[in-house]
Design goal:
By secondary structure, the protein is an alpha+beta fold. It contains 7 helices and 14 strands. It folds into 3 domains: about 110 residues, Beta Barrel (Elongation Factor Tu (Ef-tu), domain 3); about 70 residues, Beta Barrel (OB fold (Dihydrolipoamide Acetyltransferase, E2P)); about 110 residues, Four Helix Bundle (Hemerythrin (Met), subunit A). Helix 4 runs antiparallel to helix 7 and helix 5 runs antiparallel to helix 6.
């Protein structure tokens, strides 16, 4: 390359200095000689090859994912807290054989009938408690007493009001007329009749003596008036006797009868409230929790759970509640045979039966609750081992069995 000619005595320009420096930095010998390949030219090709292999692997996985899901691969994944058996039906898989295991899911025991017992329409201070947690009680057994002073006073007042209304009705009824009262009216009637006869005779005598001028016109007028008064009294006493025998008007009897019915209803309500001061067991069951103690004020109008007496349940009728995935609930049928084992002793297996599928799903877990009836052996006392809220493992089989005997009651 030709070097630029420098003018003597002139200062080198900036562009000239730059060109000189670039020419001095040429390292042709270090970058390679002739037409040979440089040492670093293979590295980009290696990186491109590795990227091509990686993208090919990603494409293969993406292509196989829909195929795996269409084959029902997720049907064998565990459901909730329990795992489903390999025989679970999903998608286009053939139906499971009769007696095959369909699902194996963890569940929780719950009583079919559980009651939070509180006083019925009465409030007051608890005076007596006759139970403790774990006691088995019979229907109608006395559990607690509430102070009943106010309700007893109301009962006594209602009873007195009923007696008064009943007396008024009895007084108006025709059967309440005593024979002596009839005899009294009849005697008055006989007296009035005698007075009428006497007045009539006086009038006839005065009339016959009018010509002799012994009787004045005033005496005759007085005799006529006395006769009319005697006749009116006779008529009035006859009507009084008829009314006494027939009785009062129908409307009075109906009003008195309504008063009696009203007093009876009031007395029955006071009697019910008084009896409710004795809290009794509504079912045969087991006491789960004791809420109240002597001296505690309880009230059925309170929204506080602590205002009750206790909670009890029938532990002879237990159910295992399981959460079944929405894509697995189609294999569940009412009446399917189940095996229920508590985690406290997995070797202790109980017979079960699918009782019902809940009508609403849990959108937070995409599951539907299923209740499985648990059959206790006749020799096992309810509540001795299986207890509410215990964790269990439920196995559902593809077999339909009849309902248990206690379910038909």
């Amino acid at each position: 390359m030709a070097m630029p000619t420098e003018v003597p005595g002139a200062k080198a320009s900036t562009n000239g200095e730059l060109i000189n420096r670039v020419q001095q930095l040429r390292l042709d010998g270090q970058l390679g000689r002739g037409t040979g390949t440089s040492r670093g030219s293979w590295l980009p090709w290696v990186l491109c090859g590795m990227m091509a292999v990686a993208w090919a692997g990603v494409g293969a996985r993406w292509y196989k994912a829909p195929e795996a899901s269409s084959d029902g691969g997720e049907a064998a994944k565990p459901s909730g807290s329990g795992a489903a058996a390999p025989s679970t039906q999903a998608g286009n898989q053939p139906p499971a054989a009769s007696g095959a295991l369909l699902l194996q899911i963890k569940g929780t025991l719950t009583p079919f009938l559980q009651i939070n017992l509180s006083p019925d329409d009465v409030a007051g201070v608890v005076t007596d408690i006759h139970f403790k947690e774990g006691d088995r009680v019979k229907k109608g057994q006395l559990l607690a007493r509430i102070r009943d002073n106010r309700y007893r006073n109301d009962y006594n007042g209602a009873k007195a009001a009923l007696d008064s209304a009943q007396c008024r009705w009895d007084e108006l009824h025709p059967k309440s007329v005593r024979p002596i009262e009839v005899q009294q009216v009849e005697a008055d009637l006989a007296e009035a009749e005698a007075n009428r006869v006497r007045a009539k005779q006086d009038l006839e005598r005065f009339t016959s003596q009018r010509a002799s001028s012994v009787v004045s016109p005033q005496d005759i007028d007085k005799a006529v008036a006395d006769l009319k008064a005697a006749e009116a009294r006779v008529i009035r006493l006859k009507k009084t006797l008829d009314i006494l025998i027939e009785g009062p008007r129908k409307e009075k009897l109906l009003g008195a009868e309504a008063d009696v019915l009203n007093a009876k209803a009031r007395l029955e309500e006071c009697d019910r409230l008084l009896k409710n001061c004795e809290v009794r067991a509504p079912i045969n069951g087991t006491i789960l929790t004791k809420v109240a103690d002597p001296g505690v004020v309880v009230s059925p109008m309170s929204f506080n759970v602590a205002s009750g007496i206790c909670s009890m349940a029938d532990l002879s009728d237990l159910e295992a509640e399981i959460d079944v995935r929405e894509d697995q609930v189609t294999v569940i049928e009412i009446g399917q045979e189940c095996q229920v084992a508590a985690l406290a002793n997995p070797n202790r297996v109980y017979k079960g039966r699918v009782d019902r599928v809940m009508p609403i799903a849990d959108d937070t877990k995409n599951t539907i609750k299923v209740r499985v009836k648990v059959l206790l052996p006749p020799s096992e006392e309810p509540g001795s081992f299986l207890k509410p809220k215990m964790s269990t493992v439920v196995r559902v089989y593809n077999t339909i069995i009849p309902a248990f005997s206690y379910e038909k009651k």
